[in-house]
Amino acid sequence: MYLSRFLSIHALWVTVSSVMQPYPLVWGHYDVCKTQIYTEEGKVWDYMACQPESTDMTKYLKVKLDPPDITCGDPPETFCAMGNPYMCNNECDASTPELAHPPELMFDFEGRHPSTFWQSATWKDYPKPLQVNITLSWSKTIELTDNIVITFESGRPDQMILEKSLDYGQTWQPYQYYATDCLDAFHMDPKSVKDLSQHTVLEIICTEEYSTGYTTNSKIIHFEIKDRFAFFAGPRLRNMASLYGQLDTTKKLRDFFTVTDLRIRLLRPAVGEIFVDELHLARYFYAISDIKVRGRCKCNLHATVCVYDNSKLTCECEHNTTGPDCGKCKKNYQGRPWSPGSYLPIPKGTANTCIPSISSIGTNVCDNELLHCQNGGTCHNNVRCLCPAAYTGILCEKPRCEEAGGCGSGAGPGAPPPGCPALLLLPLLLPALLGTASPPGF
Questions:
Q1: For 23, phi and psi rounded to 5 degrees?
Q2: At what angle are helices 2-20 and 421-434 packed, to 10 degrees?
Q3: Are strands 287-292 and 118-119 parallel, antiparallel or unpaired?
Q4: Taking the C-alpha atoms of 430, 435, 436 and 442 in order, what is their torsion angle to the nearest 10 degrees?
Q5: Which tens digits make up the pLDDT trace of 10-26?
Q6: SS3 for 432?
Q7: Are 42 and 386 in contact (CB under 8 A)?
Q8: Is residue 141 a contact partner of residue 254, using CB atoms and an 8 Å limit?
């Protein structure tokens, strides 16, 4: 009997010890904005930085093509098969569903055979350039978390530019150039992401890696987000703390992975030879079967939920913030300037909550409903917060080390997180494990 209880206590201690270890890989997801912890004064709220989970962002975008009538099928036309560019008996007809190739087929479920795809008109107006702009808009700031992947059903274009906007399409900046000959097309030396480093990760490059015309197994173009992350987090992205630290302290790096819109500029179709075959212009066109964009709503580390309602994405803001991106303090919570949350210190970050305005506080500085003392502080007679030694401020919102000239990265290796619930619950769980009739001294 005692042995079984000993084993139960041992199992509990193993669980508690695992909490005390340096944060594991699953930590640092920032998927909780606040949690209740136990202190000597009872339960209190502990606030932390938080963000929505990464997801497939193509479910929420709007697509626009320029020119608007560039999609094939109106009027119907024939085009050449990719496997045999001289077998030109395939038909595109917008009025027949089985033969139509509208833009939404770039974002539908892949896996069916034959695959579905959007397709442009053929290059029948050669030598006039065959150029298409495909704009993807979210009407919301999003943060990219994985590679952008474009799968072509035609040959990959000889020339293409991927662009981004941070102001809802008012201005555009290049993300990456693609060409069979970078020097000839864009007057740039060819490079790949592997040629970059931590210091040059923001460099805009031209790559020839994805621009081979009619190659059966080469249909995909990447914009390598993860390879750029790897310069900070390691090749298998195991050191996310380092990446988060860089994103937290380097605005240009954070903005590099942030967009409101993406634009794919198709400038020259896959030719495959030096010269265009003017006798078979129906072999030249663009066709895209799939576009993948993974990311999350930008909520400035003040929300874990992003709601899609009435064709619009909006953060469900915490920490007394408001706005589409949680970019300002709520009314009556402007006691200090708004600030984004911080990834640091790992693993919980800093919430940087908005605090009550002095004019709205009145006689109650704190309570147990709305005006919670933060970081383990306790409310004393609704007049003031009794703060832990490491914090100060009206609501214990400010680390005391900031007043001493700066804060480090947090507790040293092996230290438990502040207010660790598992440790505080240990005295409550032990009697249940030992049983109420345990002999004295066990």
A1: -55, 135
A2: 180
A3: antiparallel
A4: -70
A5: 444 434 333 333 333 33
A6: helix
A7: no
A8: no
